Amino acid sequence: MRKRNHVVPVRLNAKELRHLDGQVAKIGLSREEFLRSLILGAQLQTKPCEHHAELLRKIAGLCNNANQLAHVANGTGMAGEASVQEMLRISKETWRLVKEEW
Question: Of 47, 66, 84, which residue constitutes the final position of a domain?
């Protein structure tokens, strides 16, 4: 037996339907899920862009490199100039990719 037995028909004009479909596409839910969420007062978030996972991987790598550099600096009392320059290069490259591609 279905859990949702009640049907509530809603009539929309073309503009309202386009707006609903646009919101549904941004959120990544079906129309029914979207409307149920709104009725229940949920805070809806837009779905992440398709490059989101790749961006997170690149930033995680950058943070990992920074952590390794900090570990070496803490252990020896200083970081080598080459390590600092490499960290700066990676940071700038990541920032450039984020600005250009996302």
Answer: 47
Contacts of 62 (CB under 8 A, 6+ apart): 90, 91, 94
Please answer whether residues 44 and 28 qualify as being in contact, where contact means their C-beta atoms are separated by less than 8 angstroms: no
- Verify that 42 and 69 share a domain, yes or no: no
Instruction: Summarize pLDDT for 44-100 with one digit per residue, the tens.
Output: 877 766 777 777 787 788 778 777 877 777 777 776 777 777 777 877 787 777 777
Q: What whole-number distance in Å separates Cα of residue 43 and Cα of residue 24?
A: 14
Residues 68, 38 share a domain: no
What is the predicted pLDDT for the residue at 32?
92
- The count of domains in the chain is 2
